[in-house]
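tool_log.txt
---
The assistant was asked to compare two proteins side by side. It first ran the structure predictor on the initial sequence, then on the second. Raw inputs and outputs are pasted verbatim so the downstream comparison step can read them without reformatting.
(1)
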Amino acid sequence: MKKVLIILISIMFSVTMLFGQGIEYDSRLLVKYSIEELNVIEKENPSEIRFLTYCLDNAFYIGDYPTEKDGKINLDGEKQISDISKINLYELKIEILEGRNQLFSVNGKSKLLIIYDSSFLKDKFNKANK
């Protein structure tokens, strides 16, 4: 009886260790990363998880498309976004680049989506977390 109890407790402990890390991530990150990948990132570099989460809300600016500059804007592409109040860069498959902002027209040039470069974002992130 004691052996059965010890085995059951060991199994429950193992399952808890494997699946119940107790860390909750922003669900928008799950579009790009699995829970296992996020757990590895959290373990190896906890500030990276905070940065990835920060980018979900702070890596971009969306404004009206400047029609007077049509043809003069070097666009990186066009994105169709059903609800611009709920933008998820990972859903849009946009990677944040080092050293340059990215510009996307939205919904047929009704809006302009600007994705900030990673250096700028890291600087903003560090200032916000002082």
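(2)
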Amino acid sequence: MICNYDGCGCGMSERKQSPCMNGIMILVSIIGGLLFTTAAVLLFVFSLITTVGFIAWVALITGLVLLLTLLIFSFTAEDNCKAAKCTRCYLGGLLFGIFGSIFTGLLGIATSFAAVAVFPAVILGLVTFFFAYMIISTLFLLKCNLS
């Protein structure tokens, strides 16, 4: 059964279905990403994080695993109306975070970094922003599915 946007045909009234909080997810993800980015860049500037490569690898692998999980989940969620509705609600933000993490992770791995240059701090900022955005979006999707 493929669900549509309205009632999904599950026999649930609109009061009982969890509302789509996509705008709140985007706002919280952006604020959380900026806070996480600020902390990571400050740690890098003060030489407490010495390399960006490890963080880029973590973001890349986590993004690929979440992309594969989302792909599998989207095929299995067809029979579950609530899961399909939650996935549709948060899909755009989640894909933004996943693809951003994958692309910036690849950029971070492909580039050789010098600890004194500004470019590694910019790449680290992008990687950590998209990583935090992806994690927060995933948490919103899980919260929607579990509530």
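---
observation on (2): The CA atoms of residues 81 and 108 lie 39 Å apart. The chain has four helices and no strands.
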